[in-house]
UniProtKB/TrEMBL annotation:
Keywords: NADP, Oxidoreductase. The lineage of its organism: Bacteria, Pseudomonadati, Acidobacteriota, Terriglobia, Terriglobales. InterPro entries: CBR1-like, NAD(P)-bd_dom_sf, SDR_fam. This is Short-subunit dehydrogenase. Signal peptide: none annotated. Belongs to the short-chain dehydrogenases/reductases (SDR) family. GO terms for molecular function: oxidoreductase activity, acting on the CH-OH group of donors, NAD or NADP as acceptor.
C-alpha cells in the first residue's frame, strides 16, 4: 500500500491514557495517526513515544474547547491528506465530586463546563470534519461514551451502575449517545459509520482508584469501531463487541 493510501485517523486527547493507547494500537494496523493534543509539546512527546513502536504519527494542536481550532485542523488535514478516514472523539472530562449522588447541588457552571467538552465540542469538531470524512472510502466516527451514559442501567435497581450517579458527567454522555444515534441516521446512506464506545473502567487519571481494566484493554473498543468492515454496525453503543442498553 502506498503511503498516501494509508488510512488517516485523528484522535483527540491522544497524548495520554486511552487516547495514546488507541493511537498505538491503530498505528500498528498501519494507520497514520494524528495525535490531537491541547498542548502541542505534550503531543510531540507522545509522537516520539509512538514512533519508537513504529507508528506513523504526527502531533496536531487541538483544544476541543476552542472552536477556532476546528477549522484550522480541518484545513491542515485537507492540505496534507485530502481526506479523513477515522475520527475518534476521545477527549473528555469528569469534574463531578464522585462522593455520592449530588444532583440537587450540581452547579450550572459544572454542567456547562462538562457539556462544553464532552458534548458541544464533539458535535462542533465532527461537523467541521465531516466534509473530509465524506471523502473517505470507509469513514468511521467513534464517540467515547461511558457505561454511565446508559439511562436503562441507571434506572434499573441492582444494576452495577445504579448507585454511581455523577450527574454532570453522566448526562453529558447521554447527550453524546443521542448525537451518535442522530448522526448515524443522517449518514445511513453513506459509507460513514458512527458509534459510541464504552472503554470500560480503565486505570487512567480519570478512572481513578479501583479501576479494573488495563489501558491496553480500554483502547480495544475504540480500535474495533474505528476499523469496522463495510457490513459493521452504525448508530450503536458498544463495549468489547457487545451492544449496551441505551
Amino acid at each position: 500500500m502506498s503511503a498516501d493510501a494509508k488510512k488517516v485517523a485523528l484522535i483527540t486527547g491522544a497524548n495520554k491514557g486511552i487516547g495514546l493507547e488507541t493511537a498505538r494500537q491503530l498505528g500498528k494496523l498501519d494507520v497514520t495517526i494524528l495525535v490531537g493534543a491541547r498542548d502541542l509539546a505534550k503531543g510531540e512527546a507522545a509522537v516520539a513515544e509512538l514512533k519508537k513502536d513504529g507508528v506513523d504519527a504526527r502531533a496536531i494542536k487541538i483544544d476541543v474547547d476552542n472552536p477556532a481550532d476546528y477549522a484550522a485542523v480541518a484545513k491542515t488535514i485537507e492540505k496534507d491528506f485530502g481526506r479523513l478516514d477515522i475520527l475518534i472523539n476521545n477527549a473528555g472530562i469528569m469534574i463531578d465530586n464522585r462522593k455520592g449522588n449530588e444532583t440537587s447541588t450540581t452547579s450550572p457552571e459544572m454542567l456547562r463546563k462538562t457539556f462544553d467538552t464532552n458534548f458541544f465540542a464533539v458535535v462542533g469538531l465532527t461537523q467541521a470534519l465531516l466534509p473530509l470524512l465524506r471523502k473517505s472510502e470507509a469513514g468511521r466516527i467513534v464517540n467515547l461514551s461511558s457505561i454511565l451514559g446508559s439511562l436503562t442501567l441507571h434506572a434499573t435497581p441492582g444494576s452495577f451502575i445504579y448507585d454511581a450517579k455523577t450527574f454532570a458527567y453522566d448526562t453529558s454522555k447521554v447527550a453524546l449517545n443521542s448525537f451518535t444515534v442522530h448522526l448515524a441516521h443522517e449518514l445511513k446512506g453513506t459509507k460513514i459509520k458512527v458509534n459510541s464506545a464504552h472503554p470500560g473502567w480503565v486505570k487512567t487519571d480519570m478512572g481513578g482508584e479501583g479501576a479494573q481494566l488495563e489501558i491496553e484493554d480500554g483502547a480495544k473498543t475504540s480500535v474495533e469501531l474505528a476499523t469496522l468492515p463495510e457490513d459493521g454496525p452504525t448508530g450503536g453503543y458498544f463495549h468489547m463487541g457487545k451492544a449496551l442498553p441505551w
